[in-house]
Amino acid sequence: MPASHVREVLEAIARSPAGLTEERDAVALLDVHLAAVEDADAGHGLERLVQVRDAARQALDRTFKVRTTSVVARAHADGLVTALGPLEHLIDQLQTAEQRERQAIARLDAELGLLQAVPPDAALAALLERVTGTERLLQSTEEVGRDSKAVAARRKAVAAAGKPVQQQLAARQREEAERVEAKRRASQQEALRLKAAMAEVTAQDPVDLTRLRELVKAENERAGALEAELKLAAQLQLPIAPPPAKVAFADNTNPQAAAWTDTICAKAFAKYTWFEFKDLRKSGQPVVIDGLAAQTVITDDVMWKLYQYRRSVIDQLIVTLQAEFKNQLMFKSSGSEDIESDLDITVASVTPGDDVKAMTRFNAEIKRRFGRPPGRVFDTNLYARDYRAIEDNMSPRRGAVPQDHDIDQPTGEMVKMSGIDQDVATLMKQRRFLDEPTFTAMWQDLLKGIRDPQDRKRIQQRFEEAEAAYLLTAQEKVERIRTKVEARRLAVLARAKQGGAKISPQETATFKTYDQLKKRYELAREAHDLQAVQQLLPDLLDLLETQFPDEVMEATDAQYAERMAALRADQARLAALVKQHPEEGPGCAKAHPDQTHAQWLDGLNALKARIKQAQFTHIMFANEAYMSEGAITHIVAGAQAASPKKKQAVLDKIQPAELLQSTNEQLADFFKDMKHMAHAEHEASGATAKRRATGEAFVHASKYLSRMLDGAAMLQEKYAADPVVKPLLEGQPYTLCQRAGVAGPRALQEQVDKQLVKLRKSATIPGDAKAELAVAEVQQMFQVSSVAELRTLIMGFSREFNERVRQLPSFRAAQQVDRETERAYFRPTTAKPA
User: Fold this and answer.
1) Could you write out the three-class secondary structure of 234-299?
2) Whole-angstrom distance, CA of residue 598 vs CA of residue 829
3) At what angle do helices 124-140 and 71-116 cross, to 10 degrees?
4) Which of 156, 230, 257, 414 is the most exposed place for a label (fewest CB within 10 A)?
């Protein structure tokens, strides 16, 4: 009897009321279905495969009774069950493919209808959306189309229907690009006219401020309109010339900077620093470079060429470092892309410590090529990743991007110790840019507004810790810098002795001043005169920073790298300890023989806190870096976040202590800038020059004041509905806000941003015009007209903000640390990974 007839007979028996009762019948039926299952493949089609599977399942059900008593029947059933596994998997694959095919066909049919419905006069944005949508769809259905003729046919139809729409889009984009370029040319001509008009006004004495405001307003409107036009053009993907910051050095064909070749730029940066180029752009004085006969004035065209050369050198060095470290580095740049902007780069690595090695290699290579550290040559500084993970935005990559991670944070009560360290860090940075009497007077004024004796005691401790930490780091800096200065002196003398360039009178005078101050400092140290050391050490450091900037940066870059290398070693040790002994168990006797597991974990927690403390101490040796986690959270992760959603998410979580850290650090940066600006104000000769030096200082100060006001405003907004905290923050208006006649810090920030920060951000308003308006705006806003007066006002605002935050219940609670936590923090962690 044929197999099909046998199966029919057996199936009939199985369906009968009595069902299968004989072992031989059950085995025969199972074997028939086993053969069918084993014979099944994709060529049979999904429907037939499902029939075979379902029939086999029924056979298993109908032989169940026999299998309960028959070992042989059970063995044959096991074989069928095993064979069903691959068939089930094949059916799942085919069902998924069929579903994807149906979905792809539906989407392609819908897209075809949309393409066919595009009108001849469709808007440019609609055309771009349609073409982009078609490209995405064709890309996403490519794989399905290889396996499905129906999908392949529809993809072909969609691609054909999309071609005329693509052509329509390209024609419209070219037409719109011509209009935008014409508008840009007209706008640039208008900018030149306004610039000339502003120069004419500022050449008058007195300056017609009404007319100057009109011109600045017109320039801001022009620049804003052009910026909006170019932003829309970028969104519409118009084929227009990219902004200079996005043009590669090799692609710059501007004839107004054609003389600045790779060779000339290399010679230029070997002779001049980025800071000198900025001054030369402002003064109009020509440069003297061997081989450069034309285009010797640093115009905007030339400055952009220098900007692009700087970026090309840095980008190529990053490629070299990635190759050396097997693409396991991450580089992130932040900040603006203005014509004179600096470049701050954070580097992280998968392997702990490689980021520090890469940073050291980078600094050494720039020094080798140009004779100075990168912070001087290019105003470019590299920092090893601090508290938060970064996302690479500078490395050209293929394949997977390595992932960075945040620093290991302490937990429990040890978080309080970490918060105290961060508080001290920002105060230490303030001390870095203040003399000792001013710093002491500042915290003594703060104490007058603090009611609780314990709070006053803690505040004094924080400031005293900051003073001590500053003196220690400043002393380390001075000692290392002095070795660099002495090496320079010997090199200069040797060169002169060998018949080279003679020591200039200016350099002789500089060394003489340095020697005199150094001697006074050394005598004070030998006499153990702490007060004299406190006064002379900052003076000596200031002299070194102003007169020997190259040596200072080279020395502090090396110190920063050395300390960060040690910190990375501690982080690696911590990670290894946690990995080798993650939980309590038999390994405890070996991992920590003299401690309980809880005590051992407390020690690791303390190590995390000390590593975090070392992070900000080491940053003291870095140039321009933020020190506190609060400032990084508030400004870098929050205010400078790429998207409003990410910015809000960061700022929603920020705590009062972090906002205090940030505002105190902004004050320190304000002190830093004003220290230089006050000197320029003092040295300026003539009323006009002095006034403009003051105005330039006000323009620079606006960024820090705006950020301080933002911190105070955010805190008020965060606790606007809190009946306990709100009176502490808003009960008494800030003196600075009262002076400006506004309700609070947010309103004042908006005013400062509109009248001063906008001036600072403009790359087209001449410096003299900015300065004249800034003096007028600050005088009108705050009734002050000098750097010293503005500094006093801003210090007063900071003192009031500190008073309020330091008396908040949550802040006070975070300052109260128990004895055991303090002991654990200072107890050394001696455990080492196996």
Assistant:
1) HHCCCCCCCCHHHCCHHHCCCHHHCCCCHHHHHHHHHHCCHHHHHHHHHHCCECCCCCCCCCCECC
2) 14
3) 160
4) 156
What is the C-alpha to C-alpha distance for residues 761 and 757, in angstroms, rounded to an integer? 6
What is the length of the chain? 834
Q: Which residue has the tokens 């202590």?
A: 657
Strand partners, 286: 297
Closest by alpha carbon to 757, among 719, 796, 834, 700? Answer: 700
Q: 341: part of which helix (H) or strand (E)?
A: none
Q: What's the rounded Cα separation, in Å, for the pair 562 and 218?
A: 51
Alpha helix (H) ranges present in 449-548? 453-497, 505-526, 530-547
Single pTM value for the model: 0.82
- Report pLDDT digits (tens) over 200-221: 999 999 999 999 999 999 999 9
DSSP 310-325: HHHHHHHHHHHHHHHT
CA-CA distance, 317 to 368, in Å (whole number)?
13
Number of other residues whose CB lies within 10 A of the CB of residue 276: 14
Q: Does a cis peptide bond (omega within 30 degrees of 0) precede residue 206?
A: yes
DSSP β-ladder status, 343-349 and 380-384: parallel
Tokens at residue 507, please? 């350099």
d(Cα 305, Cα 206) in Å, to the nearest integer?
Answer: 37
Token pair in block for residue 765: 């308003």
Say how far apart CA 716 and CA 233 lie, in whole Å.
39
3-state secondary structure of 451: coil
Torsion 707-711-714-716 (CA) sign: negative
Q: Classify burial at 330, counting beta carbons within 10 Å of its beta carbon; exposed 0-12, middle 13-18, buried 19 or more.
A: buried
Count of alpha carbons within 13 angstroms of residue 361, beta-carbon side: 18
Residue 393: Cβ within 10 Å count:
12
CB 535 within 8 A of CB 467: no
> What token pair was written down for 522?
């050394």
Ranges of H-type helices in 63-148:
64-67, 71-116, 124-140, 142-147
Collapsing DSSP to helix, strand or coil, 765 comes out as coil
The confidence band for 833, taking pLDDT boundaries of 50, 70 and 90, is: low
Q: Which tens digit of pLDDT belongs to each residue from 706-751? A: 999 999 999 999 899 999 999 989 989 999 999 999 999 999 999 9
- Backbone dihedral angles phi then psi of residue 343, each to the nearest 5 degrees: -140, 115
User: Which whole number is the average pLDDT over 621-627?
Assistant: 72
How high is the mean pLDDT of the chain?
90
- Of residues 9 and 454, more confidence is placed in 454
CA proximity to 476, closest of 550, 537, 542: 537
pLDDT at 303 over 50: yes
Tell me the pLDDT tens digit for each residue of 70-99. 899 899 989 988 988 898 888 888 788 788
Report which of 345, 315, 299 is spatially closest to residue 251, judged by C-alpha positions.
315
Q: Contact 46/95 with Cβ under 8 angstroms?
A: yes
Residue 392: which of 288, 470, 319, 341 has the closest Cα?
319
The predicted-structure confidence for 672-699, as pLDDT tens digits, reads as follows 888 888 888 888 888 999 999 999 999 9
Query: In which element (H, E) is residue 641 found?
Result: none
Residue 284 main-chain phi, psi, to 5 deg: 80, 5
DSSP string, 808-832: SHHHHHHT---HHHHHHHHS-----
Q: Which residues pair with 345 in a beta bridge?
A: 333, 382
Residue type, 190: E
- 223: tokens are 């620049």
Distances (CA, A) of 447 to 15, 440, 800, 804: 96, 11, 11, 12
Name the 3-class secondary structure at 329: strand
| Phi, psi (degrees; rounded to nearest 5) at 325 | -105, 25
Residue 640 has pLDDT above 70, yes or no: no
